[in-house]
Amino acid sequence: MTKMSQQIVPVGYGSPPVATRFEPGVSGNPAGRPKGRPNARSVLVEALRKQVQHDEQDEPVEALEAILAKQIEKAVKGDRHASQTLIGLADRHGLLTAQRSQPRDCTKLNEEELAHLEDLLQKMSGDANDEEVRRAGRLVTDMSVDELKAEIARREQADHT
To answer: Where are the domains of the chain?
Structure first.
């Protein structure tokens, strides 16, 4: 043999010895998943699209819709984990970053709601408890603190005239 036919092939990471390499057309996992068998993603998608009965409704709904409805129900009842899950999901889908097209009309608040919000604003130095914050959050979910202060000031001014 000549020196030309005995080329040295580098051996190392990503370059195994020539004698142990797979031959073209031969699988490295001959006992692997058979063709035509669904993968995990396909099985999950099929399961989430399956029609199920939800809370005694007449019409069946997709399983994913029923799961989300149950999570929302738990979050509304105060389940912190369900709330965190839903907020994370909404954030991943960009639902929390949407800008409001128009500010909320503060004049639709009744006097009791406004009085409660005024009390809450005074307590916002850290004294407000979770229940008060949740109650205020249900009343005005999309009003900023500045909007609330402006509305309170406007109403106080209207009361003095």
So the answer is: 41-92, 106-160
